[in-house]
Amino acid sequence: MGKIMLQLVDHADGIRCDMAMLVNPSTFLRTWGWALTDQQKDFLCHNPFWEKQLKLVKAKADSLGKRFDIAGEIYWDKEELGKIFDGMYDNYLYQQFLEVSSGKNPQKLREHIKYLVKRQNNGQPYRSWLYVENHDEERGLKKFGGLSKTFAVLAGIIPDSVFMVNQGQEKGSRIRPPMQIGRFPKERVDSSVSKFYKTLFDLKNSRLFQQGDWDMATIYTENPNIIALEVRSPDKKICSVVCVNSGNYKAQCSVPEITANKDASVISLTDPSNIKVDAIRQQGLFIELKPGEVQVVFFSVDGKEFKAPISKRRNLFSFN
């Protein structure tokens, strides 16, 4: 396996190490220790595969003058192993999506989103690789229905993370082809899904979302399904609040910082017809979200007017 990894450096820009924790010494010994001699166990403990092999792979990439990213699929409480990889698959987030889609534990999803934001803000040595679809799972639209877009926003906007998009996901594909066939079925592109992903990619790649300071947003709500994140431009003049309803029922919240004297603009990533930009009350901007809806609010922190034309989405996400 080590030789194959070195060969791949010549042909690819990175690799995914499937089930990487299986060759971690502690996991391997727990699984196969009964079949090993004491000498073999000692060798395994003193020669952990990943620590040695990843250094060799990186050294070869450096000698070729190229960047080579290595992502590890790691769970079973083996997150410490992720420190030696460039990125680590977050299987736990996907499990929370499954829970919430069945009407369970919205608080756990919110807490994990909060954990991811705080962790990335604290300069973790590896980046989280987040996803709604994986090659060995059902398509997101088939698995989650309308909530697939909702979960894509949560997986897509976490700061300093990698949002993995399965081939065909951004086109609304519903059929998961077996890996061994080597071809894809013919499916019609879902224009509403492709437009949604274009907007989401514009958001994620915008200067505000890439360079801004992230945190959980302060909102007023009694609904546990609402998750709100905020990002502020480095000069603190522009702020965006992303409000997500992960539930199957209508929900409301208000953003207290957005008062009548502050210029604001709102877009809905999932339902462009459901916008009420004038609903500012004493508790701040009132937002009503349909099931699974995501609304993104942009406002001027200092109250000065700013232009955010919704028809020109790329301009909407820029700042000076």
Describe the structure.
This is Alpha amylase catalytic region. It is a single chain. With about 325 residues, the chain is of the alpha/beta class. It folds into 2 domains: about 1-210, Glycosidases (TIM Barrel); about 215-315, Golgi alpha-mannosidase II (Immunoglobulin-like). About 35% of the residues lie in helices and about 20% in strands. It is built from 11 helices and 13 strands. The strands form 3 sheets. A 5-stranded parallel beta sheet has the order 1-2-3-4-5. The N and C termini lie far apart (about 50 Å).
Structural key phrases:
320 residues; alpha/beta; TIM Barrel; 2 domains; 5-stranded parallel β-sheet; 11 helices; 20% strand; disordered C terminus; GH; Alpha amylase catalytic region
Total number of helices = 11
- Measured between the Cα atoms of the first and last residue, the distance is 49 Å
Average pLDDT number: 85
Strand order of the largest sheet: 1-2-3-4-5
The count of strands amounts to 13
The CATH topology of the largest domain is what?
Answer: TIM Barrel
Could you give the order of the helices and strands?
HEHHHEEHHEHHEHHEEEEEEEEH
Proportion of helical residues: 25-40%
The largest β sheet comes out as:
5 strands, parallel
Strand content: 15-25%
Structural class: alpha/beta
Number of domains: 2
Protein name: Alpha amylase catalytic region
InterPro entries: GH
